[in-house]
Design a protein that fits this description.
The chain has a single domain, classed as Crotonobetainyl-coa:carnitine coa-transferase, domain 1 (Rossmann fold). It has a three-stranded parallel beta sheet with strand order 1-2-5, with helices on both faces. The protein is α/β, with parallel strands linked by helices. Helix content is about 40%, strand content about 20%.
């Protein structure tokens, strides 16, 4: 119950962010927004995902940086080179808070 009350007080509650960045800057910014209550949807390439997944110190095959930068986010893969992937991103962005 206390967790639910805390979430309702978050300053970015109700804001939806589509994160298309990779490696450090984009995921860091998305992580900050998520910490303040925004719903962050991280889009990754289906081939390799975010390069941050394999950067530096790994735990069970995944970078500790990725675990840190991706917490509090939802994640999905899309091929942004395909027409279908591009259409899905357009729909997601249209539904995001501006």
């Amino acid at each position: 119950m206390a967790d639910q009350a805390h979430k309702e007080e978050m300053p970015l509650q109700g804001v939806r962010v589509i994160e298309l960045g990779s490696l450090i800057a984009g995921p860091y910014a998305g992580g900050l927004l998520a910490q303040f209550g925004a719903e962050v949807l991280k889009i990754e390439s289906p081939k390799d995902g975010d390069p941050l997944r394999k950067w530096r110190k790994l735990y069970e095959g995944t970078s500790l940086w990725w675990y840190s930068q991706s917490r509090n986010k939802k994640s999905m893969t899309l091929d942004l080179r395909s027409a279908q992937g591009q259409e899905i991103v357009r729909k997601l962005v249209a539904g995001a808070t501006s």
